[in-house]
Amino acid sequence: MPTLAALRGTCVSSGVLGHFFPALFPIRDPVLIFAIVLVLFLGSPIVMARLRLPGMIGLILAGAVLGPNALGMLARDASFELLGAVGLIYIMFTAALEVDLGAFRKHGVHSVVFGLLTFSVPQGVGTLMARYVLGFEWPPAILLASMFASHTLLAYPIVSKLGLSADQAVTSTLGGTMFTDVAALLVLAVIAKMTTGEVNEAFWWQLGVSLVVFVSAILLGLPRLGRRFFQRFPDDGPGQFVFVLTTVFLCAALSHVAGLEPIVGAFLAGLALNRLIPHASPLMNRLVFTGDAIFVPFFLLSVGMLVDARVLFGGLWTWAVAISMTVTAILTKWMAARLTRLVFRFSHAEGQVMFGLSVVQAAATLAAVMVGNRIGLFDDAVVNGTIVMILVTCILGPWVVAKYAPSMAKASAERGGEAAAPSGTLIPLATAEHAEAAVELALLLSAASERAPLYPAVVVEEGPDVAQRMADADAILAPAVAQASAAGRVAEPIKRLHPDPGRSLVRTRQELGAVNVVVPWDGAPSRAPSVGGADEVLAADASVVPSTAPPVLGRVVDELVRDAGANSFLCHLPQPLGVCGRVLWFLPPGVAGLPALPGAASVLGRLAKALGAPLEILCDAAERASVEAVARGASDGLELSPYPSPRAWLGALLERRSPTELFVLHGARELEPGASAEYEEFCRLAFGRLAERDVILFYPASPEVARALLLAAPAAALPAPPAAPAPA
């Protein structure tokens, strides 16, 4: 029977199983190791769910039990260290990628205040504790306190899955994380250099210049590089995925040149690529899915493997150090979150979530303790105490976030009211050529409600070769459904046979209750318009003239536009929407008082937010005040650019030729102010002049016009679809 000391010795080499079965453990077969790891990835969340604990806690405990310091079934070899480091970088990258930059800028003060508090409180209290309670000298005391000041966003996937990435408290925590981690790592660099006697004026210059150059190169250079790549390869999904990973890990690797840890470079890369990767895009879904399924679980396992059972057999000094470190870290992080909550009047749940996100110690903490141990500032008791602190905080943080985040999500949904309700989008398609761009726009329009389904639809007109055209419809719908599924969204394909495709699509939209209709359109009319040529249109005054001319948009498109119960988007999108740097909304004269204008501003504001781009409105100078009053709350970065006269606005559009601007022309239905044959022809002309730019002709939903058109419509009912053949 092995003694207690013998069992302790097994933890030094290969674990308990390795002591008794050295030929079998630790397992060396890579296929079997990967199979066991996948079983843990699958089973741990299920077991933890029964215990009402976050699944990530199960992975940490599994790593502790099966790792080299306990049973020794799995060795923490180079592969676990590699994938664990990748998982940590991935957490920081996706956290920055999901930040709402508009809210981040708007509430930047919150991030700065929380960053100052969550660094200064642990740093100050921790230094005094280490100096006067544990008896350390000043340099090791300051370095030990920096371990409390930093934190790891281990529990961030919990709030992300609940849709709280844009919450003010979460955004403040993300910004504060970057601040406190950079500050803690700078303390580490300075103390390490002081210990080796290398701190001089040249050191401070080198550190400052490298930081400025490194941060500027990422935040200014990477967006330009990414925009060019996405414009050059808009349809290469795997290529875009590999490009993003390459840039992120290059930035993380180059962090060492600036004297920082890789997690800082990964976070900066996420901020730089934030606007280029819309949250509702397939690329974002692939990035988040890969991290959640593989890299982040590997990181949790690797953290668990660091737990050393020898700590349980340590003396009183080891336990005193471990308890002092753990209590100080938890208490000071709670104080920082509490003070931030009181300053900005966050709710109790928001304050607790901030505490849960910021209390976890892992990445920068490990870096600090390893460096401190290597240069002789920390002994084995501090190393063991760090392991205990990491284990306790890695369990406490996710548990606190999982407990309070659902109440935050519930309160957010109640504040959102009707905006949180699912609303579908109909996507009428005639060919597969422009289907991808239309689905991308539909995903962005419904980004605020992930439950909202998409309805790609093809209506085949009755006539010869019906069987072949119905088969072609399947070929058109299949890629659209696959694209929506790749973005993690539900797509319900619709295929109809009807003598009047336009009316059939309108009826389908009404039956489904879809609030948006996205139509690929190249600007070409189905027949010649009854207005003058392009030169006459540009020279004409855009006066308000009721439209009595025949429609010019196309037979099917005219029916969809006439349906005023939905927002209709006629889109020409030759470039990926992810490269959009600004949304320009052009309003014709006379529409400032439209009842539908507030709803239109809200829709385009949400689109701009999904794109991470500011919204700029070009309107008549005489109507600026009215437009501003209606649209001021639509977007955080709203800008107004008035044109001096009705005649001047026609040329104002053609002067804006930036390749990163999305042009949105405000469409006017008949019976609406601004509707005229000249204006319709101008919109068609704009499509032709901006053939290489992203252009949308936007007809907002208008209940008043819908009722007027319904009263003016003939009493005859829409043609019924053909009856299905009776079964044989």
Mind sketching the topology for me?
Layout (H helix, E strand, L loop, with lengths): L3 H7 L4 H6 L9 H21 L4 H12 L11 H20 L3 H6 L1 H25 L5 H12 L6 H6 L6 H28 L5 H32 L4 H18 L7 H12 L8 H24 L10 H29 L3 H11 L4 H12 L5 H37 L8 E4 L6 H11 L8 E8 L4 H21 L7 E5 L2 H12 L3 E5 L13 H6 L15 H8 L4 E6 L9 E5 L10 H15 L3 E6 L3 H8 L7 E5 L5 H7 L5 E6 L10 H13 L4 E6 L3 H10 L16
Parallel strand pairs: 1-2, 1-4, 2-3, 4-5, 6-7, 6-9, 7-8, 9-10
Antiparallel strand pairs: 5-10
Helix pairs in contact: 3-4, 4-14, 5-13, 5-14, 7-8, 7-10, 7-15, 8-10, 8-17, 10-16, 10-17, 11-12, 11-13, 12-13, 14-20, 15-16, 15-18, 16-18, 17-18, 19-20, 21-23
Number of helices: 28
Major sheet strand order: 3-2-1-4-5-10-9-6-7-8
Sketch the major β-sheet. Answer: 10 strands, mixed
Question: What best-fitting shape do the alpha-carbon axes yield?
Answer: elongated
Give Rg in angstroms: 30 Å
Pick out its properties.
about 725 residues, 10 strands, elongated, disordered C terminus
Report on the structure:
By secondary structure, the protein is of the alpha/beta class. Helix content is about 60%, strand content about 10%. It contains 28 helices and ten strands. The protein has helices spanning about 5-10, 15-20, 30-50, 55-65, 80-95, 100-105, 110-130, 140-150, 155-160, 170-195, 200-230, 235-255, 260-275, 280-305, 315-345, 350-360, 365-375, 380-415, 435-445, 465-485, 500-510, 535-540, 555-560, 595-610, 625-630, 650-655, 675-690, 705-710, and strands spanning about 425-430, 455-460, 495-500, 515-520, 565-570, 580-585, 615-620, 640-645, 660-665, 695-700. Strands 3-2-1-4-5-10-9-6-7-8 form a ten-stranded mixed sheet, with helices on both faces. Strand 9, helix 27 (about 675-690) and strand 10 form a beta-alpha-beta unit. Helix 4 (about 55-65) packs parallel to helix 14 (about 280-305). The N and C termini lie far apart (about 80 Å). The model is unreliable at about 1-15, about 415-420, about 525-550 and about 715-728 (pLDDT under 50).
